[in-house]
Amino acid sequence: MKKFIQTLKNIWSIEELRQKILFTLLLIVIYRIGSHIVLPGIDPIRLEQLNANNANNGILDLINTFAGGAFNMASIFALGIMPYISASIFMQLMTVLVPTFQKMQKDGESGRKKINQYTRYLTVAVTIVQAFAYVSYLRQTSGPAIMENFGAAYFTISTILTLTAGTMLVMWMGEKITDKGLGNGTSLIIMVGILARLPQSFFQELTSRSTRAGNILIFIVEIAVFIAIILGCILLVQGVRKVPVNYAKQLTGNKQFGGARQFLPLKVNGAGVMPIIFAQAIMFLPTLFTLGSTSSIGKAFTDHKNIWYMVIYSVVVIGFTFLYTALIFNPRQIADNLKQNNGFVPGVAPGQPTADYIGTIMDRITLPGAILLALVGILPGIAELVFVGMQPSFSTFFGGTSILIMVGVILDTLQQIETQLLMRQYDGLMKSGRVQGRQTTSAVQI
User: Which family does it belong to (predicted)?
Assistant: First the structure.
């Protein structure tokens, strides 16, 4: 405890780090306040009554999770950061598939600025489309909550403009946190939205267990399992396969450069959380063509406790993991970079043989990573089956996107804090070892 207090004092004593933390907290507070401001023309009391009787599932629940509950509350930040995430993913894929964007990405800082500018323009377009769809969703599910003195055309136009402005403000706050704050702004905003639902879910589960005799012990076991899952997710997020790389010695004047042995870290889970997001979206699509939620097909694709849901979901996650990893990971480019910098893998010829060798290793470690990622995705359903009576809102924190995003973002943020401490010759956050983040250079860091 004494070391912890001393670490907090060291953090606060660094002016730059203190300003970063305060700036980040300020923007996060603004974001959470805006998440509770209801759209013009919506009666919040009626809306709360409607939400108490309705429950989202599929992709809508995913959006509501990322928005910190603002989606169901019809907030000005109802769409949250999701349009920006969608635009960023699209632009990231374009830099892999389209030669023009590939060249732009290799142009350094100027190319990065152009890609960011195109991402912002695309975010506006995506937000307008999603805002129009959200208006239709409000009329269908929350029609009684819309005030009568708001005309249909006026409500549609004002809502689209408000949601677009809200999303652009959230995007701006995310970029400002990344530039002047602590951690990746987009990731932090998503994590704050997820964590905002944790205390309520925790107390709901505690209240539910405490009302029945002997269930407090079950609640304690649930917390122990939850901690074990967090530890497992940390291993999954940080797991790497180190490929040894040697660099040839170079003599420049009387000085010798190179000759050092380093390692090329290949991530076990190179795709991050994206396969789970894609899988949840795919699992939601078949429900649009079913006759209703009572049909067997609709139940199989919406009930995460259903065995067929788990099987299909796992297969989709594994497939998307290989697909997304193949899109963002280019062994040939890595081999060319090593060759240009006089680096080589011991026992492997430079060029195409190195690319084949790295690609083979990546394929081997991606399979167990994909299986573990699929297991994390179906853990909420397994938790509800094992712990009978668990609240669905609490079970969502036992796996899926929630736990992976929280673990990854917290690790990245702690790594930045520790880096600032070590740069100023303070002790790190841990007595032994160092805090490591996700070690990713992906444009979409969630």
Answer: Belongs to the SecY/SEC61-alpha family.
Say how many CA atoms lie within 13 Å of 168 toward its Cβ.
17
Angstrom distance (rounded) from CA 272 to CA 369: 10
Give this prediction's pTM: 0.79
Confidence of residue 145 (pLDDT cuts 50, 70, 90): confident
- Rounded to 5 degrees, what angle do the CA atoms 30, 158, 185 make? 30
What are 405-429's pLDDT values in tens digits?
888 888 888 888 888 777 776 666 6
Residue 442: pLDDT band with limits 50, 70, 90: very low
- The residue type at 96: V
The confidence band for 440, taking pLDDT boundaries of 50, 70 and 90, is very low
Domains, in order of start, for the chain: 14-196 (1.10.3370.10), 211-250+257-398 (1.10.3370.10)
Q: For residues 389 and 215, is the Cβ–Cβ distance under 8 A?
A: yes
Nearest to 282 by CA among 233, 234, 318: 318
Query: Which CA distances in Å does 403 have to 47, 177, 194, 435, 441?
Result: 29, 22, 9, 18, 21
